[in-house]
Design brief:
This protein has four helices and eight strands, in the order αβββββαβαββα.
Length: 158
Amino acid sequence: MNIGIEFETQVQKYFNNTFKGKFKKIVKNENKITIGLPPKPHCFDFISEEENVIVECKGYNWRKKVQVPCAKISTLNEAVLFFQHINSPYDKYLKVIVMKKTNNIDDKGTLAQYYVNTYGSLLGDIEVVEMDDNNKITVIKGEQFNKLLNKYLRPNLH
């Protein structure tokens, strides 16, 4: 199976368990999210209309010999561009990129940390979180997703 698809499935299962099934896979023929002008439908990975969140998953890793995966970074930048051009009413939703947690590289950290450190100025209001193989979530950039997690994982705090 494809690593990206495996990771997307892992995220979907985690989100469905954590958020009580509120996150749904975006299906091409039912997709209402448009980007740009003229508006064109774009399929992100998941949406929660109840929680006003759109999610894109990226199961990337470092290249062999600890090199930056340039083509994957370009695809991440493309996802950021798509998020920045979402049309109303979805432009007001929390936008989250969930990246697969990679091994720390001494001078670069994980791939998500590297991406935020290098391209963070492009992200605007987009949040970046990483998920490891044991479904541990770490927020790399942003705090709204953390608040959403706390709402479901620690409901008595609200």
